[in-house]
Design a protein that fits this description.
The structure is a homodimer.
Chain A: E1 22-27, E2 34-39, E3 42-45, H1 46-52, H2 65-71, H3 78-82, H4 85-99, H5 107-114, E4 122-124, E5 128-131, E6 139-142, H6 146-157, E7 173-175, E8 181-183, E9 188-189, E10 192-195, E11 204-207, E12 211-212, E13 215-221, E14 240-247, E15 250-251, H7 252-258, E16 272-274, E17 279-280, H8 281-284, E18 288-289, E19 310-311, E20 314-319, E21 322-328, H9 336-343, E22 355-357, H10 372-375, E23 383-384, E24 390-391, E25 399-406, E26 413-414, E27 418-423, H11 427-439
Parallel strand pairs in A: 6-22, 8-16, 9-27
Antiparallel strand pairs in A: 1-2, 1-5, 2-3, 3-4, 6-7, 10-11, 12-15, 13-14, 13-22, 14-16, 14-17, 18-19, 20-21, 20-25, 23-24, 25-26, 25-27
Amino acid sequence: MAREAIVDVEGESDFSLENLPYGVFRLRSDARAQIGVAIGAYVLKLAACAEGGLFDECHAEVFSAAAARRVFGQPTLNAFMELGRPAWTEARRAIQTALDKHGSGFALLREAFASGEANRFLCRAEDVVMLLPVHIGDYTDFYASLQHASNLGAMMRGPGNELMPNWRHLPVAYHGRASSIVVSGTDVRRPRGQLRPDEADEPVYAPSRLLDLELEVGVLIARDSKRGEPVPIGQARDYLFGLVLVNDWSARDVQKWEYQPLGPFNAKNFATTLSPWVVTLEALEPHRVAAPAQQPPVLSYLDEGEQRSTLDIALRVLLNDTVVSRTNFRYLYWTLEQMVVHHTSTGCNLRCGDLLASGTISGPEPSSYGSLIELCWRGTRDIVLDDGSTRKFLLDGDAVSLRGRAGARGRYVGFGRCDGRILPATEEGVAAAAAAAAAAGSKS
Amino acid sequence: MAREAIVDVEGESDFSLENLPYGVFRLRSDARAQIGVAIGAYVLKLAACAEGGLFDECHAEVFSAAAARRVFGQPTLNAFMELGRPAWTEARRAIQTALDKHGSGFALLREAFASGEANRFLCRAEDVVMLLPVHIGDYTDFYASLQHASNLGAMMRGPGNELMPNWRHLPVAYHGRASSIVVSGTDVRRPRGQLRPDEADEPVYAPSRLLDLELEVGVLIARDSKRGEPVPIGQARDYLFGLVLVNDWSARDVQKWEYQPLGPFNAKNFATTLSPWVVTLEALEPHRVAAPAQQPPVLSYLDEGEQRSTLDIALRVLLNDTVVSRTNFRYLYWTLEQMVVHHTSTGCNLRCGDLLASGTISGPEPSSYGSLIELCWRGTRDIVLDDGSTRKFLLDGDAVSLRGRAGARGRYVGFGRCDGRILPATEEGVAAAAAAAAAAGSKS
């Protein structure tokens, strides 16, 4: 039976006592960034809790009270992540005990509740603004869904030729853009870009007409690896701190024109949206399930043997409140551990805070595809919304929300929301083009 | 006539009084990172100079003494770069006056010289260890040389089909890896990677046999741009602080197997080497020359009109002290300004410290190609070194040095060295594979 938390947690909440995701927030009334843990409709303020003694009973060799004050006093999670799994486990145990209604941990919180002063340690989620949870050095985007790669390949190269020869041998990936990663709730401006309409011989610089979403899950890397030293498969899990939802917005018309031969660039570098709460691998551990079998067998450096497994996380895409896709993290062909190993296989070093995203997650059914280009099958089918309107790609004003959770009612381990709304392409774009034309002199 | 510096500067030195590049160093005896300026075989210590009053006579509204103490007291150039061109110009003027033998600036330095205490402000280059000059948020690599793109295209797709349809319409680029950027002098371990030998049906994980160099020039971005707001072509030059040499090491066999459809990843992310001294655009300004004409004309957002120009910088590649390539920055088809504009064209934001590299710079003659794969024409020709040995790709122990400079004897504006030596692939790679095989159980 689910344990009961010290605050009311609705059965449908993503943030049960089993979850306890970490995030960075500021109070609406305060510019200061703080680390928090989500519990129901509340946020536990970890800096105040550390100062108040929440971690005083932890094993000091593993996670000392001084370390807790230091790492939870930061404006990002990086310092906490660097401490490693024993510290994370100890911190989680202490926080879970403190928030357990029938537990005995952190007397100060119980006293604060009794005297009506709980706001010293807790605030309401509606009173905070969420920020990016970590400093991200590098962002890498994989292409780890067999169905997604097959769908895109079928569209580009026709049936029978869906997958490139390398796809089943290595987790294909490319480097993404870190500067334009934004937190859920940030509006996304429809990009202008260079593209060549199907009916045209020459390219134009114009607003993208084929603006898409991509449903992905990202993992935040906990620690630095050494340059020149590949991470062995048996050690890869030590590098995984927690997961976030990722919307890798994509301008398909820009992508189609630009991507040969070096891959997508401007089609994706204008914005990438993250969910703000980092769901830890520890919270997800009870939801570990078998991963898809790999055929042909992978090379030994990627071979997980008996350790191979994945996580059962139900995922949804909402477009203006209509669920347009239901899929699952477990469909991914390549695991997070294999991504870490392959990323470092030539000696590339990972750093604490790096983001590795899965690539679009598509399941076997058309209703489980994780992007609009698949759901509308390259514009040949309508996506029907609850209000009766139809879509192929995103229109100005459209609101996209990604959701994901493991577990069952009352004990959900979920991500909250990963939201973004499309703003129309700006007049500034027009102005910039005009300014450029003017600067180019009288010839235009 | 060249001005004379307060210290002896050899005629062949890259670091004349006309240059004054910025870098970050530490004394061999001291772990602290400091900002310096190279002059001949010496390094001017800018934090000490700022404290000593070198910038006291600057226009305070443009570059105050307090600002100088703040930005030159940092361990990277980012804070100085963010101040913008008027401050850079003022700082350069003050430093040049102080170092001018017949000038009157910075009396304290002259007094220190007279009393034999110049080491308060100057140290010998041989007594310092150079560090990365900036904190690099994102690294982008372009593909801006027409000859290089044509050469690679001819090898991959055959003559007559060298260039992709997009190539003359936009500066093709991909996102690189920031974590593995290292400073000149750092050894580079030959990567193991997944590759499929030409004679094989199945891929292997093995040391790269086709390890290559790429001669590139990179620009460091001085300021943040706003997400969602493309930089107009007329403003692009304001984002350029200075240039460095870049060696974009490439494992061609890994690249060939992995790069479809998302571009190079592990083939390049194991190491990228930068020269340590940042040569400012201001120092290079006298060497501005016409850029190659672009045909067909570019779209208006990329059209530089009368402002279009580039820089005359002679470049060389040395392999074990043999010059194997002589080329020039001016051969690039796309300018740095066009790279900035196209990078931000969909709204991607640049940040101060970002590195934009040119891609391999190849000139029209075979002797001016900037990579070994071009110089050996995909393994069909030998590259002959001065010791009589031949190369196609890099061997263990090979030392690569990139050089570049503008100007003439006594007034060179040069980069110094961009060096790296190839270490053999480690036994650790073998050990990791063995560990993975062991972890995978008895089946292997």
